[in-house]
Each structure stands twice: as structure tokens, then as C-alpha cells.
Amino acid sequence: MKALRTFVLTGLLVMASFAVAAKAWAFCGFYVAKADAKLYNQASQVAIAHHDKRTVITMANDFQGDVKDFAVVVPVPVVLKKEQVRVAEAKIIDRLDAFSAPRLVEYFDEDPCDPAYDRNVMPAPTSPSAGAARESSPRRSNMGVTVEAKFTVGEYDILILSAKESDGLETWLIQNGYKIPRGARDLLRPYIRQNLKFFVAKVNLKEFDKAGFANLRPLQISYESPRFMLPIRLGMVNAKAAQDLIVYLLTPNGQAEVTNYRTVKVPSNTEIPTFVKAEFSDFYKSMFQTSYTREGRNVAFLEYAWNMANCDPCSADPLNPEELKQAGVFWLPDPQADAISPQPGPVFRRRPVRSGVFITRLHVRYTRDKFPEDLVFQETNNQEQFQGRYVMRHPFLEKPTCARGENYRRSLPRRFEQEAQTLARLTNWNIQDIRKKLPQMELSRRSWWPSWLGWGDY
Amino acid sequence: MIQDARLYQILFLALFLALGIGTRDWTLHPEVVLVAIATCLLTQAVALHWLAKITPQFALSESVWITYRSPLITALGLSLLLRTEHPGIMAIAAVAAIASKFLLRIHQKHVFNPANFGIVTVLLLTGQSWVSPGQWGEESWYVLLFLGAGGLVLGKVGRWDTSVAFLGSYALLEAARNLYLGWTWDVWLHRLTSGSLLLFALFMITDPRTIPNARGARIFWAGAIALLTFILRNSFFLSTGVFWALFVLAPLTPLLDYLWQAPRFSWLITPAEPKPSPHLPSVSLVPTND
């Protein structure tokens, strides 16, 4: 028998929970729905591949309403041409999510009376091995608004606007059939004055029907600018409640971090009771909410930071070069170029393929009062790896056949209690409710009362 | 009462370091901090030895132990601000920082702030280190602590005007920008209450041995650093702009000293004492300060 079996429950469970009421793109734009649909934003996902001054942003689109109502305005640093905008495959964000999601790991204690036990002494769940992987021509318009570019990409009609004053832009958008949320004008002004342009996308119904997709696909824009930021202020115009944003930052040399807010690791590598397996999603949500409150509601949480060449344990296969390219990674050598000029020598002497991509998954829950500024990022050379990882150890509950087995068994209540307390601390759940869900076990007559009392005294 | 403000400085920087490690989520390895301290002290010892060898008339004006306060401050400053995974990188920064005090000198004053010089050196040369401007967050109690502690140190060394000039002009510039852009004022406040900015303003640019001697010159100099920081941050989107600004403008100090003649700072004269007369001999020959 193998000493331990490790399972990774898919972290998608967690993410699905965030996406329950999700509309799209809260982070950087506001809806400008054409119909009077009641829209609100709660969660959004965005991937940003960045190196030096080049940035590729992929914005997941989980818009739930009628596609004809979909329209979004996003400030961008430069005028984008048609070739700088593309439609990415929907599954690419799901892949990034699955690869980087917080994970629940389970181990099975083995029979302490098994002779093989000594050789496989219960290993403490290993912590992640830090550093192990080194491995159209402009058209003048009135009101100071210029349509810098206008094109169709996939199922989207794109406009790039520049404006002189927010009043003009607001009026222009309204006159052209976009519904502007109240209060947007005051927020447009700072962006206009910073000389940002506005990327406006709506759905081209003809193309959408022709393509036959059920959902809108992610939009991907690339540009060259020293700005490495994500505008979140506009997204707060039509959302009162806290919004969740998951950012996948892809950089070549190491972790990326937020420079104008603290970047904080989510609690990780803790042992929690086994019943959490059935409610991992609730667990993670409660744990995140508790950490969020504890940290003062104004930090970005680091949920994952890893070299994309590997993972341990993997919640999903690492992305292959083609998928990384899809996700916007632009600095990898072209795999086809490699094929044309194969390296000399036997295959096994070739250097291992290094992905050269480091993923940083940040989870930001933001509200207007705690996040006055847009998010600004920086890439670092920090190769330290981190993952949100929660450990369940299934106890060996068979009847003991040796003294060591008895001891092991007697030690369990204390361990369960510790796990329960950890869980209560992390999630703010009621400790009594947790205790009720702990494994019930029959202890031998000799040890039952002392253990029970010792346990109950906590 | 402690006469030498450097002791306060050591105390406060150590306190911040402990607070940071204890309550903030820093990627700071204890061995890197130890390397910073050890290397700074060792470099100072080697440099003093070398100085004694090449200048026969050399004599320490302070006791041996006092001369090691300054490299300790540098080491703490480096540990607070510079991030790296490799102790070797920190060692390079520490050697560069202390060596710059002895080698890059004009008129008995070192040109660069040692910690700043060390940071910029490894940022430029190694590509294995970084500075995390967001690491402190912006909680108000930190602000108070910084201001309180910084004020005490500044009060001790009588160079508070530099901090005030720097923070004042930077706040004004950011306010003007905020007004022009039409942001709400919480944006402005958020930009100013960054712990890293305050740490810099209170503990780095106030280093009396690398800043101009005359008050007018200091205010001008601090204003220039604020302006450059503002430009680097808002036009070049460099969130670590403040360190580059100090590095670039540090060589202005000798020029400003030439233009504004004033007595040079010495650690062991408290502000309560009367201003030193121009005839008072220079207290120390060696650089003794961070």
C-alpha cells in the first residue's frame, strides 16, 4: 500500500462559487447597456501578460444577459489598432483559473500497526517547495470626442475614442445609444486628462449569430506603454457591494505585485477537518471573507505564485506553449521555429524546456471606500512559490491491534480538536458546529474518558 | 537622555523591521537581514582599517563602537527597503553602500546616502532584487508611528526641515495633479499615506551627512527630489521613483554647499546647544553616519 495518497480536489469548485452572480468586467469598465437592464457587477477575471513595456490583457467575459445589451467601456493607454485587438478562446481563462486555484489536498493515515509504517513515517504535509522550479482613418466628431479607430473583431464591434472633456464623452455615448451609469462623468474626467483612450466594445449581433457561440468570448488587447495597471475605479460606478476580481499576472522572471496596496498571502498550508471536503467552496469563501476583514479590506490577496513549468500538487495540467500564447504570453520562443532548427545531439541531452512564465494570481475584493486608486502592478524577480493549499488528513479508524495503534488512536481527538480550532479561526465558523461534524470514534474503554475530558476542556 | 540620535534611529528602524516582519506579509528572509548587518559592519571595519593605513594622521574622533552605529543604520535601512532572495545580492548592496561612504567623497562629505546607493546599485546591476513600495499599506496607525518616531529622530538631529520640505512639496504637487485630473481627495490621501514614502521621507533623505548644510539649500534640494519623484511616478510610471530621484540628485549637495555656506553637521552636537562657531574644528574625519 502506498504510504499516502494525494488528491487534489479541483479548485474550480471555489471559482464557480465566485462566479455565481457574476456579470462581466467589473474591474475596468462600466456597463453601458443599451437596454435598461438592471446590471450589477460582482466578479470578474482578467489575465495580464506583461514584460518591460508590453502588455496583453485578456478580459474574461461572463456576461449573463442578452448579448445585444452588452457594451463596455475600458480606459486604455494608447489608441489600439485592429491588429491589437483579438478574441481569445473562452477556455483559456478557465485553464488559468484551474491551474492556479486554491486547492484542497488530502492524505490518508495508514495503519500504525502495519510493519511498513516505520518506513513511511507519517510525513507532515509538505510545504510547497519554494524556489524548486528554476527552472480606418480617424473621424472627427463633435463634443470633443474623436473616434480614433472603428473595427469589428470576432463578435465585437470596437470603437477607440479619445475625448477632450468628460461632458462631451458622456453626451457622445448617450447620443450614440449607450446607457451611462449615473456618476460616470466625474470618473471619466481623470482618465481623459491622463490622456487615456477609451476602448468601447459591443456585440455585433450578425457576427455573433454567424459564429454560433453560446457565450461571448474574452477580448484580448495588446499595447506598448509603461503603465502596468488595471483601472478599477470605473467599475465601481454601478456597484455598491464589494466586487471580486481575480487577476492572473503572467511575467517572465518572478512574481508580480501591487505597488499601491499591500499584497498579502492568503492563509495556506493549514490542516483542517476532513468534512471540509464536501464544503470546500463554502470553506474558501468564509476563509477569504475572514482574511479580507482581518486585513482591513484594503489589500490584494496572493492566492498562487508559481513557475508555470510545473506544479505540486497540480490542480490542473500546466498550460502548454500554445495555451500560454493564447493567454497573451509573447516572450516565449516560437515552438515552430524550434522545429525548423532542431538542436544537434541526442534528444535526452537537450536542455529541459523552460516555460519562462511565472503566474501570480491575485484576488482583490474591493469597494469604493477602501480602494480609491486603480491597481498598479510591478514585476519582480521574486521566484518564491506560493499556493493556497489546505490539507486534510484522513485518520486511520480501524481497531488498533498493537500498543502504537492505541497511542495513535488516543492522539486523534486532540488532533481533531486542533483542526477544528484552525478551521474556526480561519473561517469564523462556530466551533461548536464544527465539533459536531468531526469524525465520531469509539475509543477503547480504557482511554475513552481521559481523552474525552482532555479534549472537551478546550 | 541619549545624546546621539543615531541610537534612536537604530531603535526605530529595528522596531519597524520587527513590526514589518511580524505584522506584514513580507518576502523577507532572516538570513538576508543578518547578511546585511554583518556585511555592513565588516565593510566598515575594513574601510576604517584601510583609511588608517593610507592616512597616517588618521585618528578616530569617536570611540570604536560609536563608529559602527552608522553601518548598522545602513543595514537596517537596506533590510527594510530592499528585497532579494539571495543573501549574496544583499551583501553586494551592503558593500556598495558602505564603500560609497569612503570612496565617493567631496569635501569630507559622502555624496550618496549609503542605503540609497546600495539599493540603486543592485537594482541596476543585478536584476535579482526589487523594492516593494506597497509593502506597508496605508494604515493610519503606521502613519502615526512613522511620524512620531521620525519626528523624534528629526528633532534630535535638527534636520526636520528636509522632511517637511520634501513631504510638503510632494503633497502640493500631488494635490495639484489631483485637482487637475478631478480625482476625489481620497486618491490624494492614499498616494501620500504610503508607508514606504514616509519611511523614505523621515529616515532616508534626512541623513544629515549627505544633505546640504544650509537650511535654504536643504529646502531647495528636498523640493527638487519631490519634483523628480513626482515626475518619475506620474509620467514614467515608476513606483520606486523616490529612490531614483534621491540617487540622481544626491550629487547636487556639494554644489549647494558651495553656493550656501554653512557649518557642517556633526552628530554629537545636540540642537539644544548653541550653533557651533565657524572656528570649531571638524569633529570627525571619518564618515559616521548613514
Q: Count the DSSP helices of chain A.
A: 11
> What is the count of helical runs of chain B?
13
If strands are numbered along the chain, what order do they take across the biggest sheet of chain B?
1-4
Give the N-terminus to C-terminus distance of chain A in angstroms: 36 Å
The proportion of residues forming helix of chain A, as a percent range, comes to 25-40%
Sketch the topology of chain B as an H/E string, one letter per element: HHHHEHEEHEHHHHHHH
- Tell me the count of domains of chain A: 2
How many strands appear in the DSSP assignment of chain A?
21
| Mean pLDDT score of chain B | 80
Q: How many E strands of chain B?
A: 4
Q: Based on Cα principal axes, name the global outline of chain B.
A: globular
In short:
The complex is a heterodimer of chains A (458) and B (290). Chain A is an alpha+beta fold and 458 residues long. Chain A is built from 11 helices and 21 strands.
Which descriptors would you attach to this protein?
heterodimer, A: 458 residues, alpha+beta, 5-stranded antiparallel beta sheet, 11 helices, elongated, disordered N terminus, B: 290 residues, mainly alpha, two-stranded antiparallel ribbon, 13 helices, globular, disordered C terminus
Describe the structure.
- The complex is a heterodimer of chains A (458) and B (290).
- Chain A is α+β, with helices and mostly antiparallel strands.
- Chain A has 2 domains: 7-103 and 130-333 and 355-391, no CATH class; 397-458, no CATH class.
- Chain A has helices at 12-18, 91-100, 166-175, 184-193, 205-211, 280-294, 321-326, 335-340, 403-427, 431-437, 445-456; strands at residues 7-9, 30-31, 43-51, 54-59, 71-76, 85-87, 103-108, 145-153, 156-163, 197-203, 219-224, 229-230, 243-251, 256-258, 262-265, 270-271, 299-307, 358-366, 375-379, 386-387, 389-394.
- In chain A, β3 (43-51) and β4 (54-59) form a beta hairpin.
- In chain A, α9 runs parallel beside α11.
- The two termini of chain A are 36 Å apart.
- Chain B is mainly alpha-helical.
- Chain B folds into 2 domains: 27-131, no CATH class; 144-259, no CATH class.
- Chain B contains 13 helices and 4 strands.
- Chain B has helices spanning 5-23, 30-54, 64-67, 69-81, 87-103, 114-125, 140-157, 160-181, 185-192, 195-204, 215-234, 241-249, 252-259, and strands at 82-84, 105-106, 109-110, 129-131.
- In chain B, β2 and β3 form a beta hairpin.
- The longest helix of chain B is centred in the N-terminal third of the chain and has 25 residues, at 30-54.
- At the A-B interface, α4 and β15 of A face α9 of B.
